[in-house]
Amino acid sequence: MTPARVAVLISGRGSNLGALLDAAETPGYPARITLVLSNRPDAAGLAVAAGRGVAAQCIDHRPLAHDRAAHEAAIHAALLEHGIDLVCLAGYMRLLTPFLVGTWAGRMLNVHPSLLPAFPGLDTHARALAGGVKLHGCTVHLITDQMDAGPILAQAAIPVLPSDTEASLAARVLTQEHRIYPEALRLHASGLNGAYDPAASLASPLPPLAFTP
Ligand code: GRF
């Protein structure tokens, strides 16, 4: 099977991009990262892409701040120009309009740092701590016109420890993002939606909890 051509859309650090690039280099992986687009020129992920020899381009949203349609048209044109099959959002911090969402329906994935449908939107780790949840995690889902609400492809859960801070929780969730995003892309690019094994997310033993229920 010819590997799917994948574009990754970023706005910042690009650690999930790195995880996807690593996975895509493994033999038999059904996708190749062939384009990285950022809406911010200072996104560190652009250097990650360049360092791996992947075409990387900034389509700055700021000159088009009042014209989302024009910004998305430029993104769409770049995706077409590079013959892209699938799009992975990885820390892409722009809301999409129905044009891009509809055009790429079923072919656009996102990773979100919570167990959706809990905590859509921003500041998920702080809200998880404030809400006193005992399990937190991350989700890979398809993009639809509802923010952070499309069909779920993969999830991983971690325990929230009494000692957790926003930073410690974010770090442990990010480790799981790096694990499940490549797995979800592998399944999606292989046409194996629904085959994600959530038990695999529970395979590692939970650390002992420091409280008495
Ligand atoms: C990740 O936590 C992702 O879930 C969220 O933004 C962060 C991006 O991190 N949407 P990185 O740029 O992939 O390192």
Question: What can you see in these coordinates?
Answer:
- With 213 residues, the protein is an alpha/beta fold.
- The protein is 33% helix and 20% strand.
- It has 6 helices and 7 strands, in the order E-H-E-H-E-H-E-H-E-H-E-E-H.
- The protein has helices spanning 15-24, 44-51, 68-81, 98-103, 124-131, 166-189; strands at residues 4-10, 31-38, 56-58, 86-89, 108-112, 135-142, 152-159.
- Strands 3-2-1-4-5-6-7 form a 7-stranded mixed beta sheet, with helices on one face.
- Strand 2, helix 2 (44-51) and strand 3 form a beta-alpha-beta unit.
- The longest helix is centred in the last third of the chain and has 24 residues, at 166-189.
- It starts with a strand and ends in a 24-residue tail after the last helix.
